[in-house]
Design goal:
The chain is α+β, with helices and mostly antiparallel strands. It has one domain: Lipocalin (Beta Barrel), CATH 2.40.128. The protein contains four helices and eight strands; from the N terminus they run ααβαββββαβββ. Strands 1-2-3-4-5-6-7-8 form an eight-stranded antiparallel beta barrel. The longest helix is centred in the N-terminal third of the chain and has 10 residues. It is globular, with a radius of gyration of 15 Å.
């Protein structure tokens, strides 16, 4: 994948990210069965000090024999990386618009209650590049946290 799509995302903020997310297409779940590099683009987790620590590094997607897609978050500090907090990926209507998205559903019994509250809506924006909004359930409200991007790792 060229650096151009990543560069385009790095320059976008706020309203521009919302507009790009709104024009994204529903991802093909069959393309989500690999390790993805991630970056938080804005919000509290996107602030330079936090972003540069790279505590959240992306996601790993896996497809089971029945075709269901699940995954784990890639977390780390320095050279150490762990995989935690299981999610299920499925196509569903967006809670924020009249279209379909891939929901990354963290409401899994193995996750702590705080992680189970995340609501991430993923769309495809370019070949090998996805954009998501992340919200946090607070009672019956969803509070916006950030936009994040996922991309296939660059070929080495």
């Amino acid at each position: 994948m060229s650096a151009s799509p990543r560069s385009r995302l790095a320059a976008l903020r706020g309203q521009d990210l919302r507009a790009l997310h709104a024009t994204g297409s529903v991802p093909d779940l069959s393309q989500l069965d690999t390790r993805m590099d991630g970056v938080v683009l804005n919000g509290h987790l996107g602030r330079p000090l936090v972003r540069n620590l790279r505590l959240w590094r992306g996601k790993v997607f896996e497809r089971d024999q029945d075709g269901a897609v699940t995954g784990l978050n890639r977390l780390g500090l320095g050279p150490v990386e762990l995989r935690h907090y299981r999610f299920t990926a499925r196509t569903t209507p967006s809670l924020f618009g009249d279209r379909s998205v891939v929901l990354l559903d963290h409401d899994n019994d193995s996750n702590p209650a705080s992680v189970r509250r995340f609501h991430d809506e993923l769309v495809a924006i370019d070949d090998g590049l996805w954009l998501a909004t992340s919200h946090y359930r607070d009672g019956d409200r969803l509070r916006y946290l950030c936009h994040f991007a996922l991309a296939r790792p660059a070929a080495t």
